[in-house]
Amino acid sequence: MFDKVSGGGELVNTKRVLVIRWDAKIGDSIVSSFFFRELKKHHKNIKVDVITAPHMAAMYQEYFGVDHVYCCKKRPNYGELKALAHEVGAVDLVIHLGKQLKMKDIYFLRCLGAGNVMGMDDELDLVNIKLGHATKGLHFSEKFAYALKLLGVPYPERNYIIPEDIERQKVINKEWPDQPVVSINPYGSGSARRLNFDNVSMLVGLVTKYKPGWKVCLMSTPDTKAETEQWCDKLDTDSVFTVKSSETIQDAIEIIRLSAAVISVDTAIIHISSGLNKPLIGVYNPDEENFSEWHPNYEKAKVIFSIKKEDGCENINCIDPKDVSCILDDGFL
């Protein structure tokens, strides 16, 4: 009903671009951050706007340098989408890199009536600049690099933009030891991507074995802070601590900035570590398609995979300590 062919037009005449990022994921935003910088660098007069969630607005406005941020709640109704499209007004190009767009996505794009729609859902007539097949299997950052190429930026610098907050650094520093620190983030999205205590204990033991003079910071989220503090007490060693003042993703960024190395099961933390050039061990479930798009994309990164169970179930806790030992044996730290 809403999937009508876009008007089309030459991308060389693009004066205003709208990027839809209302999924509001930190990792996705970090990985695509260079897109805005490079587009503005090579096309001084182009206007680049973004639609995202309210809690992500400051990052795009203050650090990524977009011209205007439109905020959208998580589940807008059709009337709110129509009003948002009216607020945005005329755009030459809309970029929406969702793999399979939902009805409300299609409706919103139809309401915008943009000259060009760039996306990965090749089956839609509305998407006239199709990136699905063209970028299949590429890292998510490469998909945005491909978009830049189509917009006349063939060789963009792809280093990520990582927000920095000096005041939060000062707060974190009050709890930070003088020794080098390996930060371990055991928490990913969903229960299947959260390390249990036994695996955290194993990682702590291996790090302190290979680097006996170093400290280990257990990172936490607001809903796991109490558990993380209990784990530190249970491990009962002076080598392990958690930053009790850490509350936000910006605090997590500052922890990573202070760290000598990072071990993480969460891709947002992995991409932030990559952007800050930190030696990194990323722990992934054996999902080939997901890994091809969201691997660390960074030469200092090492990767270990959990072992898929016989029933096909994936759980990040099915990791082999030997895989970690091999990385540490190779002089990772």
How would you sum up this structure, described in words?
This protein is an alpha/beta fold and 333 residues long. The chain folds into two domains: 11-150, Rossmann fold; 166-329, Glycogen Phosphorylase B (Rossmann fold), CATH 3.40.50. Helices cover 37% and strands 15% of the residues. It contains 13 helices and twelve strands. It has helices at residues 26-31, 33-42, 57-63, 78-88, 103-112, 140-150, 166-173, 197-210, 225-235, 249-258, 267-275, 288-294, 321-329; strands spanning 16-21, 47-52, 68-71, 93-96, 116-119, 129-130, 181-185, 215-218, 240-241, 261-264, 280-284, 301-305. A six-stranded parallel β-sheet has the order 3-2-1-4-5-6, with helices on one face. The chain has a six-stranded parallel β-sheet with strand order 9-8-7-10-11-12, with helices on both faces. Helix 11 links the parallel strand 10 and strand 11 (280-284). Helix 7 (166-173) crosses helix 10 (249-258). The relative contact order is 0.12. The model has no long low-confidence stretch (mean pLDDT 92). It comes from Oceanimonas baumannii. This is ADP-heptose:LPS heptosyltransferase.
Helix-strand blueprint:
Blueprint: E1 16-21, H1 26-31, H2 33-42, E2 47-52, H3 57-63, E3 68-71, H4 78-88, E4 93-96, H5 103-112, E5 116-119, E6 129-130, H6 140-150, H7 166-173, E7 181-185, H8 197-210, E8 215-218, H9 225-235, E9 240-241, H10 249-258, E10 261-264, H11 267-275, E11 280-284, H12 288-294, E12 301-305, H13 321-329
Parallel strand pairs: 1-2, 1-4, 2-3, 4-5, 5-6, 7-8, 7-10, 8-9, 10-11, 11-12
Helix pairs in contact: 4-5, 7-10, 8-13
